[in-house]
């Protein structure tokens, strides 16, 4: 089958960084697996990080890809709720072959049927960022659905893939007042259309920006979702949080974060890693399939929207390199997708 992968960790400028490959077909589905014909994929920062730093085992090709929409072609003996021909979406598991291949095996518990109102490309833009944003908001930060009245959520780097979903989830499922950070006219417009109540510039001092929008620069937010440059903004985020507030992050700081400054306000720090459930086989792994099903319902009801902003062509090495370069530029807004082989 056609696939895109790599044998060596190389910068994108090297022609071998990503390669068009012809790989063996996946084995028959395990008891809990679906065999999916991949129709569209999206690219996330995790793709670029793994490409740069995770070597394939025993010289085999490593196939990336943790966002997909496609059609079920076969089901395992223990699968319930899916049948061949179903159109599905999912983010997959980091310890299994990825979605940049014509066919892929995936645990049915982390899959749901895709929104009927979206084509495969528009659907593929959402799963990984949706799971990340949902888990960050409701599981890590602990905001109850329908709750949050009178409290503020600050989302840094809000125009990226996760932020683009997180703003929508907070507006649809909570009563939080959402403050998003953005600095360019395009990103300011984007987060505004997604529903942010306020927008502040992350290139300016945060305390002054929060004062500018009239919420008070100190002790003004109950929750922070730090999606980019956490180490750069860390002192300012602590300054902005109320006593007993919560700070959640997904990025990879360049050095250790010092937890001691959190003590004075009894603040708590939370990591979100959306692969944790599948990687460790947690008892609640099926929560990811259930949340994707709820988001599919909300999309079809017009309550949430795709974050697709770029269609980058068919799934091949050249187009995936372009997608990786877009992510690595730090200028990506929303999500880019590739469709078909």
Features of this protein?
single chain; Quinone Oxidoreductase, Chain A, domain 1; Rossmann fold; 7-stranded mixed β-sheet; 6-stranded parallel β-sheet; 10 helices
Instruction: Please outline the major beta sheet.
Output: 7 strands, mixed
The structure class reads alpha/beta
Sheet-strand content, in percent, reads 15-25%
Multimerization state: single chain
Q: Could you spell the SSE succession in H and E letters? A: EEEHEEEEEHHEHEHEHEHEEHHEHE
Q: Globular, elongated, flat, extended or rod-shaped: what is the shape?
A: globular
CATH architecture of the largest domain: Alpha-Beta Complex
Terminal CA distance: 10 Å
Helical percentage: 25-40%
Protein model, in words:
This protein is of the alpha/beta class and 341 residues long. 29% of the residues lie in helices and 24% in strands. It folds into two domains: 159 residues, Medium-chain alcohol dehydrogenases, catalytic domain (Quinone Oxidoreductase, Chain A, domain 1), CATH 3.90.180; 140 residues, 3-Layer(aba) Sandwich (Rossmann fold). It is built from ten helices and 16 strands.
